[in-house]
Design goal:
homodimer, alpha/beta, Ubiquitin-like (UB roll), 6-stranded mixed beta sheet, 18 helices, about 30% helix, about 25% strand
């Protein structure tokens, strides 16, 4: 049977980078990490060194969404040989402890030891997924975004261009140096008055110009009467003018490789954010970045371990050189943006929550170490606050709610929840600390929407036997619950009267258990039928965690609307975005009181709107200008300053809500 | 007795960088270089590998001005242990061969071997010289340059400034991000409309602003209504706003560290150009740069081995952090400029001699790897052709000939000779391949003007015994002749009738010898009295080489003036610049027909005019604009296109000239 570590996935293991740590210290023990994939990595640890820390330094991926505070119980590893000083915790049963299971975060090295790391590293690798573009579904959403934005009067045109430039070949009578010769020729070819040649081009132009006898194609960027020469290519080359749109989520990173001339998607891929081994949420990441070399480590985790491999993979799939990517657009939250550029993110988390930048235009790929054309401009979708970032402004752009008369609510369910409400006349945004529950975090059997995840379910009211829909090939056994599965599960448990409005188990049966402290749980899959070392079950703590998450969303909607003198029934449309998956059952989400009770056909799942927003910004200079308009016109509401928020939140932590009147379409028995 | 390698000095030996080469090859031999200073360096060489190449790869400095063609005879090393496959050449006598002397460039490794490298590396180190600024002489020339340029109406003012910027401390009610907050505050403080924050500053500003509670000083660069924030410092800091002026010569590099606010020189230093181990002249350097990784090696030799140590030394002496150097001005010839930026210099040497750039404004210190403030702008004095570079335009600026009604001739005697003739109305420039003779190259006993160099001499006409002036402390023995010494020597040999107008020895005596081929030579110092393994002597080949050098200068003057319908007697003033030394005897230079026969009091030695020009460009934006005017207004005459040049050159290769009428003030017996 396959051992597993559930839930939010882990960092990345870099084969090129087997570091040995602690070598200079006086007492050293050898720690051998046996990865389930078969790989074995050696490290050295000082006496008493924390096992999770050793793994991090060695780039061995061990999942630790709580950042090593023994809170989440996900960093479980198995002792194979030797001993380790490890506290017992409630996350490991006596039987499991007996078998050698330990939490890495509470284990201290005090001898040579061999540790089995469950299949996280390879799970991570498999998650580097290049989409099959032949499937219309993969492209559809971007084409729809483009059509919507174009319908709003935004032209899909950008300032990158390939120009054929033919110069006089220099002679003793014509001794103009290369840079002036090219400048003049480009000016003549494009009707520009000021042509700039950046240093990187200056440095290499002599060879290229001579190789092609001063008859070349130039990749240029036009702006007003100015142009900048980005690259010089041969006259016959089929110059690929590519761009990269990238959504940097706290948990996942998704990207598109795009032909900038044709607007065609050449590759689409996604992977986990390599920073996850430094914590599941932005706060833990920021804290990690404050440690010595922390900023560099976090930047390295997202750039070298995540984005660069993703680019390599996509370029290989599309048969494009990364050097042909001349522009990049990033949509990420404010913390991700700061950690990406290597800026101090601490002020993002500390009152008064002032980041270094909302907008910045001065960044190029080489500044960040991103392996594309070094002088490629990096467009960053603007942040509007410490907790409403470029992912939301890009997503709002993609949703087109700024162009509609209808009152629309845009909800992005990422590692946190962000909301935008408004229409063509105004917009307000807020962020709520929903936590990582929608992506499977904070849930004992939670996981992301990958193979083995239960993405949907129903429960037979009489037998309490569930019918599950599991992601993966035919016969794939269940590992855990992803976001949409949790929504269905709680909705069904509630509908079947197995749990009460407070999320407490009130029926008895085979599948319902209570432990010695009285905590109830429901067995979704018995371990015999699961791809797991234990039963897949959901317990009252999980349900409570999820109810707080959904409560945070609903109360945020209520408070934001209240602040504008709106009520939830005045919402015309709801646009749901994020990694929760297209399988989300909107009826169930309303049933549990997560979304407002409006007509189900006014709910629209718009997928990864950050990525489709980034796609638009990359391809259209007008869209880039528009997103700044959108950002400037968006008010930010700091929920924690709203006196009613706490009461609203508490009232929302019920199924569906303490005020049933807010959900008139639901019938309760 | 101390062994020696004469003449132009060598590269640099980097203790940090003991590389072992050839390790991957099948047959390897160990080569141990014993430096005379006591250091020992090991390398590995493949069978048959050239010893000079092995030394270069290992960063062991062996002098090879002819770039390893067995032509100059300067790469002599001594076999200590083992054998080496080494051809005999005319540069090593039988006796010397017996003693173990070999030319590295013709030696092939075919066994483990131990090689003594004469005292070049340490000679090189001693040449890193920080000037004593208490000596008025060191400062004088720069103050004079400044006064002259100011007299021409150029203001000594630059666009760098330190501004106190006090911001509102952010709060929950004032959530402007750091970059906008600073931008607004700087705009308000300076009355600027557009303030730019470069990426490097963006990345680190959060910490600095918070450390000083949003009350800081900013180093800014102003231009029109725009400003750029270069650095952020504490409110109480005595912000040093420093600049670096640097003259990159083919042989030597000299620099000034300057307080940009006060215009005060904080340090002055000079060193050898580390590229010299790749050849003494620009052509050999370019050829070396075409080899694999050649551009990187040449750039590394000038940046990491030469400029960065020089900066470190000066900063240490002035007690300044290199990070406080916010601007840099480079004056170098066209090849040096191209090798500095890592551009392909091959077109500089190949017809039609078209470099990548004459002018470039897009370079910053970090582009070149120079260890100062990374975003420091690098001003490059403009080149006007492949053989008239920024050293000459900067030097011309410093000479102020562009501001005088008098007809002036500016002569820069560097590794080549460059001339500018004109006045406030016009200027023409040309370059002549004088070769490295003025710096001691191409002369068997030639050397640069360092300790042991004979810088002046007279000869007793009767006894033929010379009276020498040797650079160095009391009792310093002679090693060889530097440029000014060679001029004196040839002038005196001619005056005393020891050589004829063709440079052939025509008197007999103790000191005059003829070898078996009939080649005459004159012993300047017998080896017993010299700091050398052999007699210091000058032979007919040396004299011939020097006569071709001086002939190149004089004929260039003639041809350039002819092309303008001028004659040499119409020159009002001659400004002599370059490393030949302030000790140059102008009378003797006229005697040998090197300089035109005008009144001696119209000759002006202006020292290192490239460096004083760079000093002006650094401190004054108007001077920077002016040097571009000067460059644009300067015509370039390609001497090799002039039909009369060959005849003029041949006629000038006599003492003083075949047409004695050109030197009316000289009386000949």
């Amino acid at each position: 049977m396959q051992a597993w570590i559930p839930g939010i996935c882990s960092g990345v293991f870099d084969l090129q980078n087997k570091k040995q740590v602690g070598k200079d210290k006086e007492f050293m023990f050898k720690v051998t990490f046996q990865l389930e994939g078969g790989e074995s990595i050696e490290a050295f640890a000082a006496e008493g060194e924390n096992l999770l820390e050793v793994a991090r330094k060695t780039n061995v991926a061990i999942d630790a969404p709580c950042s090593g505070n023994a809170a989440c119980g996900k960093c479980r590893v198995k002792l194979i040989k030797g001993e380790i000083d490890s506290k017992k915790t409630s996350h490991i049963s006596d039987e499991e402890y007996e078998q050698g299971w330990r939490l890495a975060c509470v284990s201290k090295v005090d001898a040579d030891v061999e540790i089995m790391v469950p299949d996280i590293a390879s799970a991570y690798k498999s998650r580097m997924k290049v989409a099959d573009l032949d499937s219309a579904k993969e492209i559809e959403i971007f084409e729809k975004t483009k059509a919507d934005i174009e319908a709003a009067g935004i032209e899909f045109k950008n300032d990158l261009e390939v120009v054929r430039v033919t110069m006089e070949v220099p002679s003793l009578d014509d001794t103009m140096p290369d840079n002036e010769r090219l400048t003049w020729a480009v000016e003549a070819a494009c009707g520009m008055e000021h042509v700039k040649i950046p240093f990187a081009v200056l440095k290499t132009m002599a060879e290229t110009l001579r190789k092609y006898n001063f008859d070349v194609q130039c990749v240029i960027r036009k702006g007003g009467d100015k142009a900048e020469v980005l690259d010089i290519c041969g006259p016959e080359e089929q110059v690929k003018l590519c761009g990269l749109a990238i959504d940097i989520g706290t948990t996942s990173v998704a990207a598109l490789l795009i032909d900038m001339k044709k607007g065609k998607i050449l590759a689409k891929a996604s992977t986990g954010n390599g920073q996850i081994r430094f914590g599941a949420d932005v706060i833990n990441r920021i804290i990690e970045s404050l440690k010595p070399d922390g900023k560099e480590k976090l930047q390295d985790a997202i750039v070298s371990e995540t984005i660069n491999p993703l680019i390599k993979q996509m370029c290989r799939s599309a048969k494009i050189s990364p050097q042909k990517i001349y522009r990049m657009c990033v949509a990420g939250n404010t913390t991700m943006n700061h950690l990406l550029v290597g800026a101090d993110a601490d002020p993002v988390r500390m009152e008064p929550y002032i980041p270094t930048f909302y907008e910045t235009t001065s960044i190029h790929a080489h500044d960040l170490g991103i392996n594309i054309f070094p002088h490629a401009r990096v467009i960053m979708a603007p942040n509007i606050g410490s907790y409403v970032g470029g992912d939301i402004t890009a997503g709002t752009l993609a949703s087109c709610i700024w162009n509609r008369p209808e009152m629309s609510l845009f909800i992005d369910l990422g590692t946190n929840g962000e909301l935008v409400f408004g229409n063509e006349e105004f917009m307000m945004s807020c962020a709520c600390s929903a936590g990582p529950a929608f992506e499977g975090g904070d849930i004992s059997c939670g996981m992301r929407a990958t193979d083995g995840a239960i993405e949907a379910c129903t429960i037979d009211k009489d037998t309490m036997i569930p019918t599950l829909s599991v992601i993966g090939d035919e016969g794939q056994k269940a590992v855990g619950l992803c976001g949409s599965g949790i929504i269905d599960m709680i909705s069904e448990l509630f509908r079947c009267g197995i749990i009460d409005p407070k999320g407490k188990f009130i029926r008895e049966g085979d599948r319902v258990r209570h432990d010695k402290y009285g905590m109830g749980s429901y067995v979704i899959v018995f371990k015999e039928d699961a791809a797991s070392v234990k039963d897949v079950e959901i317990n009252e703590v999980d349900i409570d965690n999820f109810m707080r998450a959904k409560g945070a969303i609903f109360s945020a909607i209520r408070v934001m609307l209240n602040s504008l003198d709106f009520t939830v029934d005045m919402i015309d449309d709801v646009y749901v975005a994020g990694g929760i998956g297209s399988g989300i059952n909107m009826q169930n989400a309303v049933n549990i009181g997560m979304f407002p009770d409006i007509s189900r056909d006014r709910f629209h799942y718009i997928g990864n709107s950050s990525l489709s927003g980034a796609y638009a910004l990359l391809l259209s200079n007008e869209a880039e200008a528009k997103v700044h308009d959108v950002a400037h016109n968006m008010t930010y509401l700091e929920l924690s300053n709203e006196p009613t928020y706490m009461d609203e939140f508490v009232a929302s932590c019920f199924l569906p809500h303490t005020d049933a009147g807010l959900f008139p379409s639901l019938t309760f028995k």
